[in-house]
Every structure is written in structure tokens, then in C-alpha cells.
Amino acid sequence: MNVDDPADDPDGPLRMTPGPTEIPSAVRERIASQPPNPDVEPEFFAFYRDLCGKLEPIYGGDDVVILGGEGILGLEAAIASLVAEGDRVLSLSNGVYGEGFAEFVESYGGEAVVCEAPPDEPLDREAMENHLSEGEFDVATMVHCETPTGTLNDLEGILATLADHDVLTVVDAVSSLGGVPVPTEHIDVCLGASQKCFSAPPGLAVLSVSEAAWDRIEAVETRALYTDLEPWRDAADEEWFPYTHLASNLLALDSAIDLLREEGLESVYERHEAAARRCRERAREMGLELYADESMASPTVTALSVADADGIKERLWDEEDVLLATGIGEEADEILRVGHMGHNARIDRVERTMDALDRVLD
Ligand SMILES: Cc1ncc(COP(=O)(O)O)c(C=O)c1O
């Protein structure tokens, strides 16, 4: 037990939300240290390059860029930088974040064709293939883990088909990167955020960009200024960032990634699988049902079908000091979500959460 960590105190609060997650003490300590000046100190640029280098293997080897801003900034920046007036974008969706991409596309002047599947079903590959045979697309968007419904989309075949059609791919892997292997092979822009499986504080959008995506970003006449990724291509090497970087958040992320590397990615992935398995076993023992079929459930978050999710959440926090999340959108009150991601993907934390849930449901 780490006595510095309130979540390890059996009477302390335990936040098992699907991001932001609890932050390990080493990461909290680092954010309290004096950061270098991110505008002028050469050491800062060296540190930033080193951090991107540590992140690259998690993202499959492409260039990594870290933006100061939360996850949504990365989603918007990707679309703003890749999509010009009149470009055609195929948006695969089975949830809130998948659908949200289309709004970014339209607001930057693109034409979004949405391939929509119900939230408890896999992405519609057949519909995608029909669209691809009927017309040309510049970019395709999709989500790996739809956090609001706890589903993990199987992307490998979809990405390979899109690569065969020379369509650039943008994948929101915000709640899977660092907790689940992401099939990065045919991803051109892969989007993550600091506060999910990395267990650093919220505030950084962490994304990778392939060579093909950089070339398109340079070619596209974008409407974007603040969200334009183009200046980031050489920023670290030229030692000039488009705006003052969030130095303290970057220090925290660096410590979080060191913890991940010390443990080893394979063991991190296994820890997530084990936590998810135990959470679902306990849910079944309590007679609870998963929102979607278990074959679709993400190792990072469990979505349970319940009545009055909001009431259960309130009681868990008031009576048990355990924080969970409800759903998002129309089904918000019918879904209760247990986040077992990052630092929280631990059996003892899952057991304490499910004990508390058991008492409240009793
Ligand atoms: C799948 C997914 N994409 C994007 C986001 C947006 O991230 P942020 O809340 O950091 O803006 C979230 C947040 O929960 C998410 O779950």
C-alpha cells in the first residue's frame, strides 16, 4: 500500500471513473516541481523531444505531438488540419465520440458521410465498403474505445480496407492508448489524452501523425489557426512552439510514462485485462448486465445496464466514497460505468468498488 495515495487508504475516496483517473503519487510530486521555461530554455526542448520519443512506441512509431489542451483539442486539431472545404470524410460511428467527428468535419467545410451502427453493435463494415465503392473519400474517422458505452471497436480489418482505398485514417484512441494494444499499423493520426490510461492530470492532447498525414496537413488550406497542426511538424527541432507549452503538465506526463515503461507495456495490458475480467465477474455475481455483449467490452471501462444510474452514483459517493460515472447522452441514466484504466486498473480497487456497489444495491 502506498500511504501517500488516498485511494490506497480503505477509508479514503476512490475515483473509479473512466478518466480522469487517480494520479500516482510520483506523478503528483513531479507536477509540483519547478518546471523549465518552455519558451526559452534549450533543456525544455530536449526534454519535450525525449518525452515524445518515449511515447512513440505506444503510438506505433509515428511522430508524436503533444498539444496543451484536453483530448477534444486533439480531435478538432486533426480534422481542422486534414480537412479542407469540400473534402469528403467517412465517419464510422457507434457512439457519441464517433458521431462527434462529423460535426468537426462540417464546421471546417468538409462533407461528412456518417456510417452509423447502434451503440451496442460493432462498426458497420459492410456499409463502409458500400460507401467506398460508390465514391472517393479523403479521410476516415473512427473511435477505438467508445468510453460512454464501454465498447472496444475491432479496427484492424477496417483500417486495412481504408488503406487499400488510399484513405487517410484518424482514430480516437483516447481511452484505450496505454491500456489496450491499439492497431496502429494503418492509422495516420492517432489521438490520445493525458488523463485516461496514462494517469497523468488532464490538460494534454497526445497524438501521432504519419508522414502521409503530415504531407496532407501541409497541402491543406485550413481555416484553423490555434488548432492547426502544421507548425508542430518541426517545432521541437526548431525549438519554437506556436504557444507557451504546459510545462508542468508535461513533467507529470513524463513521470507517468516512466511508470508505464518500468512496468512494461505487455504487463500493463495484462493488468487491464485482469481488472476488467474481475469487474465483470463481480457484476455477474450481483446479477448485473453489461451494456453491450462481453466480446465488445473494453479492458479499460465496464458499462453496466442499470435503472437510475444517477441515484446509484450519488449514493456510492455519499455513503461509500467511491466515484463512478453514468452514461452520456440519451441513455445517461441507464448506464453505470466503472473505469479500470491506468493507475486504477488494479484488482484491489475493483474489489473495493464492487463491494461498495453490492452494498448500495442491496
Ligand atoms: C473516446 C473519447 N474521446 C475523446 C474524449 C475527450 O477527451 P477530453 O475530455 O479530454 O476532452 C473522451 C473523454 O472522455 C473520450 O472518452
UniProtKB/TrEMBL annotation:
Its cofactor is pyridoxal 5'-phosphate. Residues 104-311 form the Aminotransferase class V domain. GO terms for molecular function: transaminase activity. InterPro entries: Aminotrans_V_dom, PyrdxlP-dep_Trfase, PyrdxlP-dep_Trfase_major, PyrdxlP-dep_Trfase_small, SP_NH2Trfase/AEP_transaminase. Signal peptide: none annotated. Residues 1-11 have a biased composition (Acidic residues). Residues 1-23 are annotated as: Disordered. Pfam families: Aminotran_5. Keywords: Aminotransferase, Pyridoxal phosphate, Transferase. SUPFAM superfamilies: PLP-dependent transferases (SSF53383). Belongs to the class-V pyridoxal-phosphate-dependent aminotransferase family. This is Pyridoxal-phosphate-dependent aminotransferase family protein. It comes from Saliphagus infecundisoli.
